[in-house]
Specification:
Layout lengths: L8 E4 L7 H17 L4 E4 L8 H4 L4 E4 L10 H9 L8 H8 L1 H11 L6 E4 L5 H8 L3 E5 L9 E3 L5 H9 L5 E5 L3 E9 L2 E2 L3 E4 L7 H5 L5 E3 L6 H17 L5 E9 L4 E7 L9 H8 L4 H10 L5
Parallel strand pairs: 1-2, 1-3
Antiparallel strand pairs: 4-7, 5-6, 5-7, 8-9, 8-10, 8-12, 10-11, 12-13
Length: about 300
């Protein structure tokens, strides 16, 4: 691919969220790939430098490899827009919406995109009422956190309070969600193109933080092994789920495919992981796109208001 002149590029990595360590790994991988392509790229950790240093150091563009709060939730995007710096991924509104799983669900429900049933809970919520609506087991998780941080699967009343308290440590807004048994899938979006689906198999009960980043026995299948027609239907729905939130550039849409081949969409990640365990690079490889070309393409799709 021909190489545009991107100027001096800041790779935003690390940050202050609970996903800092994963972001450092993503950012390092992105930085090295950009350097291998001859791009004038440099690391920039907002936990160590104020964002105005981007202007002081004469950066011309930003690759956001931050995950979670203060990087994926619209806050950094707003600061970059005020500074007039193009940046990768979605804009302010789409980033904020996608980070908020409750409001994502409200929008998806309004347009007929399937998502698991849920209720907002607090310390006074009645377990019996919640269980009567959602059935057991159920998922309890923070509404505005990533990497399944603070997430629990519960099957009994005695686990309810502890699961709520764990989620509430990470967010004041907590979701209890229907547990959908089925195949875990993810659909990467690059520009306006859905990449091949990735199917995930875990040895434990959940595709949680440990299974994502630490375990060596989590299995990934790309292509997914699903029939072509079903894969194309899911990809089309994932692209719609991405678009309806206003996402741009790239994203990763996570879903569960139930035993009746009905997809239930869980969330959209607007700054997905780019580590050696990450799923977007895996999907890109299956589409014939190298990691280096992937990061250059994402950079070329930089958001400008």
């Amino acid at each position: 691919m021909s190489m545009p002149d991107f100027g001096k590029v800041a790779v935003l990595l690390g940050g202050r969220s609970a996903e800092r360590e994963i972001s450092l790994k993503s950012g390092d991988a992105v930085l090295n790939a950009l350097l291998r392509k001859g791009i004038n790229a440099h690391p920039f950790d907002p936990a160590h430098l104020p964002l105005e240093a981007l202007l002081q150091q004469e950066f011309e563009r930003a690759f956001i490899a931050l995950h979670g709060r203060y990087g994926e939730d619209g806050s950094v995007q707003g600061a970059l827009e005020l500074m007039g710096l193009p940046y990768t991924g979605s804009g302010i509104l789409a980033s904020a919406l996608a980070m908020d799983k409750w409001r994502t669900k409200l929008i998806w429900q309004a347009v007929g995109i399937s998502t698991p049933r849920y209720v907002i809970i607090d310390a006074k919520s009645d377990f019996n009422e919640v269980a009567a609506y959602l059935d057991l087991p159920m998922i309890i998780k923070p509404a505005r956190e990533g990497s399944t941080i603070g997430l629990s699967k519960i099957e009994t009343k005695k686990d309810f309070s502890d699961a709520y308290q764990l989620a509430a440590q990470h967010d004041s807004l907590v979701l209890a969600e229907q547990f959908v048994e089925g195949r875990e899938l993810t659909a990467a979006i690059l520009g306006e193109m859905p990449l091949p689906l990735v199917r995930i198999e875990v040895t434990g009960e959940l595709y949680d933080y440990h299974a994502k980043y630490l375990a060596n026995d989590t299995r990934y299948f790309c292509p997914s092994g699903l029939p072509d027609e079903l894969s194309q239907q899911i990809q089309a729905q994932a692209l719609r789920a991405h678009r309806i939130l206003g996402c741009a550039g790239w994203s990763r849409v996570d879903l569960i495919l139930d035993k009746n081949d009905q997809p239930f969409f869980l969330e959209v990640n607007t700054s997905p992981g780019m580590t050696d365990h990450s799923l977007v690079p895996m999907a890109a490889r299956a589409a014939g796109i190298s990691f280096e070309d992937l990061v250059v393409k994402i950079l070329a799709l930089s958001y400008v208001e």
